[in-house]
Write a structure and sequence with these properties.
Strand content: 15-25%
Number of helices: 11
CATH superfamily of the domain at 11-153 and 187-211: NAD(P)-binding Rossmann-like Domain
CATH class of the domain at 11-153 and 187-211: Alpha Beta
Number of strands: 12
CATH topology of the domain at 11-153 and 187-211: Rossmann fold
Order of helices and strands: EHEHEHEHEHEEHEEHEEHEHHH
Structural class: alpha/beta
Largest sheet: 7 strands, parallel
Radius of gyration: 19 Å
CATH architecture of the domain at 11-153 and 187-211: 3-Layer(aba) Sandwich
Helix content: 40-55%
Distance between the termini: 55 Å
């Protein structure tokens, strides 16, 4: 018999300490839902217990552990959290993805919201997104599961990594073409959609939900908005050669050579417009938070670095 935890939760949330999972957990608790929050380390348990969630720490690559946390849930939020330091990124993602699919099958949960990304329909040429394509296929193959696949654009939160370079070099750097229009989104908006779907559970079969922010942005426009927020109106975006960015990511940021290469491939796909909305901008996929609003949060974090 499959092991189960003491008590049950209405909704299980994977990655509760991450960008989307934390916000989803908070929204569900605020709405009065019963939540079982999965965290990666025991040190995080008390923090989420204090919020009112039932918390469990464990290895998300362990299908039995996941099945026990999914058991009894009316809905589950899943994601394959990534570690850019691993020498074989895709192998680790596949292990996580297979554990999630197995756990859904064994637990009998019927409603699943899964985080993917724009470009998840592509099997290759999209960098680290290719592993999300394989995960989408695994989840689609499950019987009697109502699956909502969320495909958001690039996270606004990715620009937190730019703050240190801004402080020391006075510019925003990356390898994305400066004129490329990129769908970007605040993770709070992803969380709002996910939390609503987990609560309502009003779809059947497989649904793909794109989420693309209020407008597409170039990295030049993003740098300008950040500059305005931090009091540096002349802040510029500088495009680095691919090989230079790989060197920075491996030598300074601690990325594995494998993931650094995948990250650059992802940027190339952004530059070429390969990671885009398949349905075009609609009322359903356009989310409200403007980048300028988020830039105020970046400014707060930047000031705290002083």
């Amino acid at each position: 018999m499959m092991p189960t935890l003491e008590g049950t939760a209405m909704i299980t949330v994977m990655g509760a300490t991450g960008n989307t999972g934390r916000k989803i957990t908070e929204l569900l608790l605020e709405a009065g839902e019963e939540v079982r929050a999965l965290v990666r380390s025991p040190e995080k348990l008390a923090e989420f217990d204090a919020l009112g969630a039932k918390t469990v720490a464990g290895d998300v690559r362990d299908a039995d552990y996941l099945a026990s946390t999914f058991a009894g849930a009316d809905a589950v939020y899943t994601l394959t959290a990534f570690d850019p330091t691993l020498p074989d990124y895709h192998a680790d993602q596949d292990r996580r993805g297979e554990a999630i699919a197995s756990a859904i099958r064994e637990s009998g949960v019927r409603h699943v919201v899964a985080l993917s990304a724009l470009g998840g329909e592509l099997a290759s040429g999209n960098g680290f997104i290719a592993s999300l394509h394989r995960q989408e296929r695994r989840l689609r193959a499950l019987d009697r599961v109502n699956l909502m696949i969320l495909r958001p654009g690039a996270f606004y939160e990715g620009f937190y990594a730019a703050l240190d370079t801004i402080r020391h070099e006075g510019v925003v750097v990356d390898s994305v073409a400066p004129e490329a229009k990129v769908p970007m989104i605040a993770t709070a908006d992803i969380a709002a959609v996910a939390a609503g779907a987990l609560r309502e559970r009003n779809w059947s079969g497989v649904m793909v939900r794109e989420l693309i922010g209020p407008r597409d942005l170039t990295y030049t426009e993003a740098a300008s908005a950040i500059g305005a927020a931090i009091g540096q109106p002349d802040l510029q975006y500088v495009q680095l050669p691919d090989e230079e960015l790989v060197a920075i990511l491996t030598e300074a940021a601690g990325f594995s050579p494998d993931f650094a290469t995948l990250f650059v491939e992802f940027n190339q796909a952004l530059s070429k417009g390969r990671l885009h909305s398949l349905e075009g901008r609609t009322e359903s996929n356009t989310t409200p938070t403007e980048f300028e609003e988020f830039a105020a949060e970046l400014a707060y974090a930047y000031a705290a670095m002083a």
